[in-house]
Known about the structure:
6 helices, alpha/beta
Amino acid sequence: MHHDFWHQRWEQNQIGFHEAEVNAYLSSHWAELGLDEGAPVFVPLCGKSLDMLWLREQGHPVLGVELSEKAVRAFFEENGIEASHAEQAHFAQWRAEGLRLLCGDFFALTPADLEGVTAVYDRAALIALPPAMRVDYAHKMAELLPAGAHILQITMEYAEGALEGPPFSVTEAELRSLYEDHFEITRRAEWNDQEGPRGARISEKVYSLRRR
């Protein structure tokens, strides 16, 4: 899935993946990670998600990475937040109180970019990627995160052919094959037989992962 695909989606406002309110699974299950107060949180492929504001309200400094500059600008403009802007090696950076958004390619990140981060919130990144890229994504996440770091992971599952992703179906078996070499995985909750995009029947699952 090339960069042009995502730029086009944002330019044409084809952003059905964007939620107009804070994700209910985030607010229900975040505390189960048992994070330290003020722990920095990383949100990959963050778009203009309101979940970042919720995380900041809980006292977490938030680092997001997003390919689309339009999405980054919209996040600050639509929420009335003034942000400073600067260019750095591989990313353009926007900063506001408790928020730092990097505009660029997730795969260009280094552990230094995530220095201090001990938690990740992934609602829309893993399920946005086709199978081969999911393998690379999981390897990259293991490279970026230190021992003891946590991920709150939300996935969806649906029958083959029911939808043309993204979002893609990611089964629990696949999730475990992607992450179990480097992470302890706990399924926290699941909701079955819900109506998803274009009327497809989907299941959604919430996991916590802990970097060994």
